[in-house]
Design a protein that fits this description.
Rossmann fold; alpha/beta; 4-stranded parallel sheet; binds pyridoxal-5'-phosphate; about 45% helix; about 400 residues
Length: about 400
């Protein structure tokens, strides 16, 4: 297989037939300006050394690779390792791209960073990065989500960002996107819309991937050093796809390593309540780019569901769509029950409370490990910690 993964996407932002810029012409210019600025800035010593210093001394990178011996023994098969992104400052991988985006906005002389947030995870990570980099931050959030996600709302306020409640329509993520985007369109030359995953129009899928790829580069070197070889399987959960592509990028050319993305099967793939976009979706355009998506016959996004709010997105990053089609990455699913079982297993056996998002990848790893011999190894991206989910799970399981 001679794929020049490093050179993807092409100039127009396409990964095969996915990605691109499905946006009005005036926005194409703005996106291309961001791409040009990114190309220039990312190669300067000032930007590189600033980001490297923050990754190390602020986020706490490199995050460790941990061998989960008790979990592995219990499952009884292949050995399971974790890349501990849950140990990053703010508790998840999102800080990796938020720092990159905030720094880029600052270097471009932008006056304000804007975004929407659903459960508040992207909002908190972005507000953190903007406080640090000293740039104004405005987050739009649905009124219903504001009431549901109290701790994150409080954190965003403390961190000094302007929180805009959205009380139109469904008062959730979808309307928060529209509201934030309207604000952005008031002055796109001076504002920076910080997308929270490897989605949206070019250059975001590429830029966010680049900022996240530190995860896989570290993990590959750490695993080699620890084990003297590469893992047999690497796996990560897939919502928009940023933590997964962050882990996969460094391994794309290692043909002996099997790459597996795990989508939420929710209440079952045969019900309407899941968010398994790559498994059940069809090609279409969404939020400015081409990808697989869960859509009705007219091409409108369908309501999606996951027990992990960070995974309930009707689309998915264009590079994942391409990697699925060329069969370099396999996409599997885990349902709510498997996710909760994995959440509890890791908590009770290893003393690590994972995010419900990450627990989907853990569930897959446990399922597949049981079928493999001890000599095999699986590396899981533990994308975040589960503090945010602890109360919900305790109530759900009546603990
Ligand atoms: C947001 C989030 C995800 C899902 O986003 P991706 O872009 O698919 O990585 C996964 N895990 C955690 C902990 C998150 O906060």
């Amino acid at each position: 297989m001679t794929c020049k993964f490093a050179e993807m996407p092409d100039e127009k932002g396409y990964f095969g037939e996915y990605g691109g810029q499905i946006i009005p012409p005036e926005l194409v210019k703005i996106m291309n300006d961001i791409n040009d600025a990114y190309e220039k800035v990312r190669q300067t010593d000032a930007f590189k050394s600033e980001l490297a210093l923050l990754n190390a001394d602020y986020t706490g990178r490199p995050s460790p690779v941990y061998y989960a011996s008790r979990l592995s023994e219990k499952v009884g098969g292949a050995r399971i390792f974790f890349k501990r992104e849950d140990l990053n400052h703010t508790g998840a991988h999102k800080i990796n791209h938020c720092l990159g985006e905030a720094l880029l906005a600052k270097h471009m002389g932008k006056t304000k960073v804007l975004a929407e947030t659903g459960a508040g995870q992207h909002g908190v990570a972005l507000a953190t990065a903007c406080a640090l980099v000293d740039i104004e931050c405005e987050i739009h959030m649905g009124q219903i989500d504001i009431e549901k996600e109290h701790p994150n709302v409080t954190k965003m306020k403390i961190l000094g960002c302007k929180l805009v409640p959205v009380s139109r329509g469904t008062q959730t993520l979808k309307d928060a996107v529209d509201s934030a985007f309207e604000e952005y369109l008031k002055d796109p030359a001076n504002y920076f819309y910080a997308i929270g995953s490897v989605v949206g129009p070019h250059p975001f899928p590429r830029m966010v991937r680049d900022f996240q790829s530190i995860v896989g580069h570290e993990a590959r070197a750490q695993f080699l050093q620890k084990e003297g070889r590469l893992p047999d399987i690497i796996t990560a959960c897939v919502g928009g796809g940023s933590n997964a592509i962050g882990l996969f990028t460094a391994f794309l050319n290692d043909e002996e390593v099997k790459l597996v993305g795990v989508e939420p099967a929710g209440k079952g793939l045969d019900t309407a309540e899941h968010a398994a976009t790559l498994t059940k979706g069809t090609k279409g355009a969404l939020h400015g780019f081409e990808c697989y998506n869960l859509q009705d016959e007219e091409g409108n996004p369908l309501p999606v569901y996951s027990i992990a709010s960070g995974l309930d997105y009707p689309g998915v990053g264009p590079q994942h769509c391409y990697l699925k089609d060329i069969k370099r990455v396999e996409y599997e699913t885990a349902d709510d029950k498997e996710c909760l079982d994995a959440f509890m297993a890791l908590s009770r056996l290893e003393g690590i409370i994972p995010a419900l998002e990450s627990a989907h990848a853990i569930a897959y790893a446990m399922r597949i490990a049981a079928t493999l011999p001890k000599e095999k190894s699986i590396l899981v991206n533990l994308s975040g910690r589960g503090d945010k989910d602890a109360d919900f799970v305790a109530r759900k399981l009546k603990l």
